[in-house]
Amino acid sequence: MSHPAPSATPAAARVLPRQSLPPYLTALVVLAVPLGITLGAWYHQREMERLEASAIFSREASRVSAAIEERLNDYAQLLRSGQGFLAATPAVDRSAWRRFSQHLGLERNLPGLHVLGYAPRITAEGGAAFVRRMREKEGQANYTLRPSGERPEYFPIAFMEPENRVHTAFGFDLATEPARMAALGAARDSGTVTLSGPIQLLADIAGQKRPALLMAAPVYREDPPPLTTAARHQTLEGFVYAVFRVEDFIASLGLSGKAQISLRILDDSATERRPRLLYGQDDGPPPAALREERSFYFGGRSWQLHFTDPESGRSDREMPASLVMLASGTAISFLLAFLTLHLGTRRALAEQLAHQLSREWEETNVRLRSVFSAMPDMIFELDRGRRLRHYHSPRERDLLTLPADALGKALGDILPSGLAAQLEEACRQIGRGESLQVLEFQLPRGDGEICDYEARITAIGEGGYLVVIRNVSDFRRAQLALEVANRKMTAVFDSATEVSIIATDTEGIITVFNRGAEKMLGYRAEEMIGRSSLSMLHVPEEVTLRGEELSREFGWTVADFDIFVTLARLTGVERREWTYRRKDGSRLAVNLVVTAVYDEADNVVGFLGVAVDISALKRAEAELRRHRDHLQELVSERSADLLLAKEEADQANHTKSEFLANMSHELRTPMHAILSFAGLGASRAAGVPGAEKLHHYFLRIKESGERLLALVNDLLDLSKLEAGKMSFDPRPINLRPLVREAAAEMESLLLEKSLHLSIGEDGPAEVNCDPLRFGQLIRNLLSNAVKFSPEGGSIQVRFQSAWLASGRRTADQGRRPAVEMTVSDEGIGIPVAERELVFDKFAQSSKTKTGAGGTGLGLAICREIALAHRGTIVARANSGPGCCLAVTLPLAETAIVAEEHA
Known about the structure:
By secondary structure, the protein is of the alpha+beta class. The protein is 44% helix and 21% strand.
């Protein structure tokens, strides 16, 4: 428990001496002194942090090194136990080896070990007998010596535990693999436990970088082992061996400590040309990382342990105390210098400002001590025996008062017996595995007032407990005040007997049902509160229609309770007329206002619905509508006359279209005769000397006739389209081949004006259309583009995804996928005011009326063809010169299905 020291009298409260230096020199001195102290303290703190980090890192490295060496010695002792077992048991079989391994408890006592096995020495002559024995007596029906081939002697795996890990390893000759044989040879010659270089386990997939090690101990026929190498060769019976992966070996040590250590293990034995990585990442440590190297020799192998601290070089680590000290000291130094300068230049306000700064400085120190010392609660730290190890109580008057010698005492010696017993029982429950315990109790404070307290007990460390005691008297009083306020609010709601007030939570559970709602609907509050019953108050048909309307508007399914609160949740409030159903089945019209209720964090916590009965208003509106009926009849009669006039105009237009269709057909027959005779006359006049003018006249007749025939054909097509007599054969088709076909027909025109036609390969082009009729549209568009493009210009045809309205009416909201084909040129363009006019019959742009344009029917025919395909055609502006004509058609059904599957 800490107590603040008594405040010293502020220096500014005394009489200020006369300044002997100019204000700026005084400010420089004031800045230099604390800044120098700050720099010195920062340098000292930084060195202390560096030394502490280095010491912790070195201790962790020593601990890890010792753990690795100790575990290797444990493995070696295991192999010596195997030597003793084989020496004491002359005829060892498979079951005896299993019992021996199970007695050792390998997984429990020596974690990280992969297998423990025995490989006997078998001569070439005894190989067949050994295999027969393993198959017949040891139950290994498929046992064989692997790999096959004749060798002077074999060291096959005969026994190993646990067998289920590498069952396929039985019969494998350890001497056939160089690294394993090197370890076996060293063990045989030295008579001691040896360790191999990196090997790959038989169960691992080739190419996996999971180094493993083989530890072997020789077994001789003589005890003690022979002293000479030759005698050891003669008396060798086999090897007890252990295999383990290096990563499993390291993981079994449980090396996590205070320091964040990264470990790399290298094998730099003399037999290796260069150190080989056994464990860790192959890349080096970061430049700023702590590092330390250690080495030790075991089983004939020399290991290097490289320790690094990867966290020491990271820039996102927590800011060290030295930098905090430097920053805060520098800031304070400059602040003091500024204040000194200000005091020197503002002498008249010096004393008042000094008093104010002294108070602020003292208050700042008090706040900092409060923040850094502890929380504003009483905290007990108990040891395993539930004795007080440490406590803190910065607000003694609001919390319990403990004796001065409370540390080290049991709870019963420092707390009231009842409270001590409750805390003891809570600690025992936590010891039995239960979670956080919360106790509530009352005790007199030091001034005698009875206060409410809350104690929270949890386990910390190994067997310790943390007890946090808080004075909750104010909270209890606030709860009581809230209950009183709720009762007052309920009284206010109940007084509104002509207005229905219903409140719900965010799930639709009714929480408030005032007396006005009881009077309006016939239900009692007890029947409705706590239930999700809003739907029973509404007409089902209205609720269903409103849900469908909201679902179309927002694009997702709105159902159940969300029908009433979706708009309020999004906008805060919704006003709407509904029809309520009373308990007796009768109905009434209401104006319902639903408002979202927010908490302090601006989160929606419920909804409030206020309904007013508007049945009388509805009856008045019905009476008013009845008086307007006669006026409505007059309007209806006038509308009928207008509708009749419209139908007559449509009939006249239809008759005109049929007349044009019939007349165009009648005109085509004599026109074909004129063209035929003109062509015949031109061909014959071409071979008659002196008939050049006649030949020219015939050609002029033929050209004029062809233009007239084109006009007649356009009139015939347009009249058929308008009269609905044009037949269409729509089918799924790709527009790009149609464009290429039309472009091929116009190749001579393109070459004549040196035009470049580009057809885009990106974007969808599958539509449902009549290729013959839509090909006519494409030819018209390309013909216009060629006609109005300057020499050397370019024409671009592009395809992209688009959307079309599902219906023909303006109010239709649905959309369907479509393909947009655009034809862009670099010609004279179309004025903005004429981009809709050019699609009318016999209409031309003002820029083409000089003679460059045609009859004015081409784009009208294009629009009729596009509309017949349920599409659109519009004119747009290019980013540069010219214009862009965009045709949009619905995407083919097959393309829609393919897109959905994609």
